[in-house]
Design a protein that fits this description.
By secondary structure, this protein is mainly alpha-helical. It has helices spanning 10-33, 35-61, 65-68, 71-75, 79-100, 113-143, 160-174, 198-215, 220-237, 243-260, 263-266, 294-321, 335-343, and strands at residues 147-149, 155-157, 183-184, 191-192. Strand 1 and strand 2 (155-157) form a beta hairpin. Pfam families: DUF5692 (PF18948).
């Protein structure tokens, strides 16, 4: 058991997961299928939200009650959330430039952009994992346990699992192959990265789920499971080669929703916490008296193993094919790659 799903709220928690999963799939389809949808989701909407965020922080600096009590200001003030939102949105805009061949999106050198932006997003999460590991160690030295209170008033339990998963994240960057193998689909709905097959996707999903489980525990039911499975589901069934675009789109849209409506995950009947909180609840005003980090450790080891295996597989294939795995595509014999390439505009 990863999460505490039982009792009178279990039905609501499961319903909330289905709504988020389905909602992200539908939102991604809206964003990817037309230029207008993409422009609205990743240019107009983020611009409007930026004005909203600035207004909140200006109001808070002036001592306005409406700003100081705003859910975004109270619950989503961490540097990580803003970094992730804007990094993911930048990725979506860059992917549209490649897909529609806007300006530098026509150039050969810009094809490396997807690798760069994904690597940046992974490094943001790795830094957060390492931060939690350090703070957990500091708490152990000063308080006798590993609990530390984040800037968003969530008790986190930092330990060796953060370091293990952070290493897995760094390895995951090295598991991205065929950096220059970026294509626009014939129907102009997708930016394709055919060499990013199931090998990378599984390694990434395991690493990223553990990241959310470690550092966003009160949100991991949604931003861990639902958010990760939505793009993977789409890639598996109808959008071969488009996983990274699906991932960026759903991540950016989810970050926008979560930043504005944090109470959905935090205090509503849909809120779901992991088994880490052995006391059965998470209250910022009450330091936890017990912890169950077993699954944090188990998943961290699985995530590291998956990324080590994936990287070893890439090294083996690159040697057999006598190719540089980053300059060249090395999964060309896989069915997923071939289906994606059949969709690509040559």
């Amino acid at each position: 058991m990863l999460f505490q799903i039982y009792g009178e709220n279990a039905g609501w928690q499961l319903l909330g997961w289905v709504l988020v999963f389905a909602g992200l799939i539908l939102a991604n389809e809206l964003a990817r299928r037309t230029k207008k949808g993409g422009i609205f989701c990743f240019l107009i909407l983020p611009a409007a939200l930026t004005v909203y965020f600035i207004a909140i922080y200006v109001g808070a600096a002036m001592g306005a009650d409406w700003a100081l009590n705003n859910p975004t200001y109270v619950h989503m003030s961490s540097w990580f959330h803003y970094a992730k939102l804007y990094a993911a949105t930048a990725g979506c805009i860059g992917f549209m430039m490649l897909k529609y061949k806007w300006k530098i999106g026509k150039t050969e050198w810009f094809k490396v952009f997807p690798f760069v932006i994904v690597a940046i997003n992974i490094l943001i999460a790795v830094a957060s994992d390492f931060e939690s590991g350090i703070r957990g160690l500091m708490a152990l030295a000063s308080q006798g346990d590993r609990w530390w209170l984040s800037s968003e008033n969530v008790w986190l339990y930092g330990g060796w699992w953060n370091w293990v998963n952070g290493i897995a994240g760094i390895l995951n960057i090295l598991c991205m192959t065929g950096w220059w193998g970026i294509y626009s689909s014939k129907d102009k709905k997708d930016m394709l990265w055919p060499d990013m097959t199931w090998c990378f996707i599984i390694a990434y999903d395991l690493w990223n789920f553990e990241y959310t489980y470690n550092n966003l525990p009160t949100h991991a039911w949604y931003c861990g499971l639902a958010l990760l499975l939505a793009p993977t589901f789409a890639n598996a069934l109808w959008n071969k080669g488009g996983w990274i675009q699906n991932r960026a789109n759903t991540l950016a849209l989810w970050c926008m929703f979560a930043q504005v409506f944090p109470m959905f995950q935090d205090t509503s009947r849909f809120a779901t916490i992991p088994v880490l909180y052995a006391d059965g609840f998470m209250d910022a005003a009450t330091r936890p008296t017990a912890a169950n980090p077993t699954m944090q450790g188990v998943i961290a080891i699985i995530a590291l193993a998956a990324n080590v295996i994936c990287l070893a597989f890439i090294i083996k294939r690159s040697k057999e094919q006598k190719k540089n795995p980053y300059k060249n595509e090395i999964f060309t014999d896989q069915k997923d790659f071939q289906i994606a390439m059949a969709r690509a505009e040559k």
